Amino acid sequence: QAVPAGSHVRLNLQTGEREAKLPDSENGKSDMREERRRKRYSDVDVDSNSFTSQELKKALAKMKESEKAERKVRRVPCFKAMYKVRKKFRPIEQLKEEFEKLNVKMETDYEIMVKLISKFNSSASTLDEKVAALYDLEYYVHQV
Question: Where is the composition biased (Basic and acidic residues) (predicted)?
Answer without folding.
Answer: 16-35
